[in-house]
Amino acid sequence: MNHIRGWLVTAVSSALLAACSDYQQSTPQFEELPPPLTNVSRSLEAVLEQGTLAEACNEYAASPNDQHLKLKCGKYQFFYEGFDTLGVPVPIMRLLIEDFSEYVGPGFVGLGMYEDPYSEQRFPLGFGETQALSEDVNAVAYTCAACHFSQTDDGLYVVGLANHNLLYGDTLAYMTVAPAVATGVGIDSHPPESIARVSPAVEQALAEGRFNSIIDKLLSLRDIALDPVPFETEQLWMSWQPGVLDFFTFPFPEDGVHIPIRIPSLFDIPTRTETAQFNMRHALLTAAGGGGSLESFVRGFVLTSGGDLERWDAEARSPLVDYIYSLRAPQNRNPPDAAQAGRGRDLFERQGCLDCHDGKAYSGRELFSFAEIGTDDALRYFSDPELDGTFCCGIVPDADSELTQALKAPRLTGIWAHKRFLHNGSLSSLEELLCLNPRAAEDLRQGMSNRGHEYGCELSLADKQDLLAFLRSL
Q1: What is the phi/psi pair of residue 140, to 5°?
Q2: Cα–Cα distance between 18 and 218 in angstroms, integer?
Q3: SS3 of 233, please?
Q4: Rounded to whole angstroms, what are the CA distances from 303 to 83, 235, 246, 290, 391?
Q5: Any idea where the domains of the chain sit in the sequence?
Q6: Of the candidates 136, 137, 143, 146, which has an alpha carbon nearest to the alpha carbon of residue 90?
Q7: What pLDDT score was predicted for residue 13?
Q8: How far apart (Å, rounded) are the C-alpha atoms in residues 70 and 314?
Q9: pTM to 2 decimals?
């Protein structure tokens, strides 16, 4: 009897093994899923996908149905694509990095940017190849990463985080004013503020015998016609806080109004589906809420920056759009006390903060007047200096864009990592926003006021601290 039982076990086992073998041979095997893109890391090389981004768009072109490759191509565009927009001569970039290195630093680290570990010329992340200026002079243009890639105070590199360390005005001054100060050519056309800003770097370079190096680079531009910078514009550059800029001024289209705007983070931007779910008129992008969708915003950036919309049509831009849509706010690695943050959440709701921040990622779903919020109202002239409802400066809007003469409530996720607050960046901490720390005396220059949005300033010290804990948990 035992030998029959043993035979049955052996026979059944053999049959099962054979069946499994046949099943494995006849059933398609699941491919291993590609690793997710690294958008938050203490390793810059990890964020740059270990140097593999350069071929991402070619790989996507060969496999256009591969969503992972599309996002990776979008990440390449985020860091490196110039979209044929207005560029900076490469000799000027080399001049700053090589001859003014003690002040500008490799990768423009002295100006709040980050050195690209894969750049042989030690260029910063946030510049990519663009249309050449001549057969002999190449150029690089600002990319998304210049303004929307940064590092938290605890050392995390985060794609999409507003670069509130970026000294954009200083960067432009070094590019345009430092060569004049070094050579003495055309120096009278520059204001004393910008001359003073770059002079220490120039003086050190000359003292260390770099004059000939500077001249050699500038001579390579002798046949290039570079537009002069308006005197008043350079003065405005020098007034900007880190992480703040006026996009509609030289070298981009000039709207004639000084409208400094803090750089926003790109986390959790609502898609078209989500705008419908939240009953929004549209995505309310830009500080004025006039951008109807991320697609239209990217189109507008390429257009106003002098790019080629025929070459960079919606399909060619779609990898970048999809990639930005995928960005999410990073978690605070040093989170506040959970109980305190919970009390702050309750307070946020009880005090009516949700009346303005009731959309995706605690963004607003409506537009607000400047009188209602009390903040600096220069933004109402954004792209419309005559307030006549007509886009200025050669801007050609699409159906998703509008002039609002209003203000939107920004998304709050990731606000724990921000360093500039209010739409014009005139406050430097959440403590100032809630009046835990006193605000500086008001700057009365156009666009610079730190008044308004005093919601929460009337709360008790304990309530303010709870509310801060909640905001830093988002």
Answers
A1: -125, 150
A2: 77
A3: helix
A4: 10, 26, 17, 16, 14
A5: 81-231, 261-471
A6: 137
A7: 39
A8: 14
A9: 0.91
